TrEMBL record:
Subcellular location: Cytoplasm
Gene Ontology MF annotations: GTP binding; GTPase activity
Keyword Metal-binding in record: no
Function of the molecule: Required for a late step of 50S ribosomal subunit assembly. Has GTPase activity.
Main location (coarse class): cytoplasm
Domain annotation CP-type G: ranges: 10-165
Protein known as: Ribosome biogenesis GTPase A
One Pfam match: MMR_HSR1
InterPro entries according to UniProt: G_CP_dom (IPR030378), GTP-bd (IPR006073), GTP-bd_ortho_bundle_sf (IPR023179), GTP-bd_ribosome_bgen (IPR019991), GTPase_MTG1 (IPR016478), P-loop_NTPase (IPR027417)
GO cellular component term, pick one: cytoplasm
Amino acid sequence: MWYPGHIEKAKSLIKQNLKLVDAVIEVLDARAPYTSRAYEEEELFRNKKRIILLNKYDICDKQKTKQWEDFYRQNVGNVFSITSKNLNVKDFFVKNIYPLVPEKFNERRVMIVGIPNVGKSTFINSLRGKKTAAVGAQPGITKGIQWINVSNKLKVLDTPGVLYPKLFNKKMINKLIIIGSLKAMDEELDEAAYFAFNFLKAEYPQVLDNIIEDWHTCENAYEFIELFCSKRNFLKKGNLFDYERGRNTFLNELSIGKYGGITYELPSEFS
C-alpha cells in the first residue's frame, strides 16, 4: 500500500500550524464523502471549527449527496456541495466561508485540508486567481504549505494532501483507488476493478449500459474488462486483449467522472 513519507510529514506540518488558524476546511470527494475523509480528523482537528466542502458535485449522485449534506450538517455543522472547477472560489469564500470563521485581531485565518486528488489544488488555484499550485491526476502532487491572502481580513493556509498511515479496510482502499486518491499495485488495481464492476452492477447498471451495451453477458469483472478491451480495440502482440490497459482505462475514466454521477457510499453504512 502506497503511503509516502511526505504524507506523514504533512500531518506533522498540519499539527504545527493548527494554532495559527481559527477554522479548518475539509475538502472531500462528493462521491465518497466518508472514505475521502480517510485521516484522523478527530485527533487532528478536535478543538477547531470545521467546514466541509463536498467537491466534484458535478460527477456525484445528487440524491445520495443530499443525505451526506444532512449527515455532516448534523455532525459537523457547516457543509457545502461545490464543483471547484466551475466556481468563482474567491466570491464563494467571501460570501460563505468568511462569516463562519471566528475573528481574532481583526483577521480570520483558515486551514484547508484534504486527501490527494479531491480537487483541493484546483480549488486553491481558483482562489489565487492564477495557476500556481501543481494540479495533476497523480495523488499527493502538492507538497508544500503556503498562505493565500483572500482579502485583507481573510487568509487561507494550504496544506499537502493527507491520508491515514495504515488502510486495512479493503472496501475503503478500493474506493480511494477508484476516485484517484491512492496509487496502487497491479493486484490492488485488479481488486478495485472487480469492486467497481460489482458495485455498478448492483447500484448503477445503467452506467454499465452506457459503457458496453452487452455487458450482461459478462459473469465477472475479468470478462467485462476483456469485453471493454474488445470494444476499444485494446490489443497487444498475438491479437490478445491488453487487459492491463483496459483495466487502467476503465478505472481512470471512473476517477475523472466520465460515466456520469456516481456515489460509492451512504451515511447509513457508517452509523
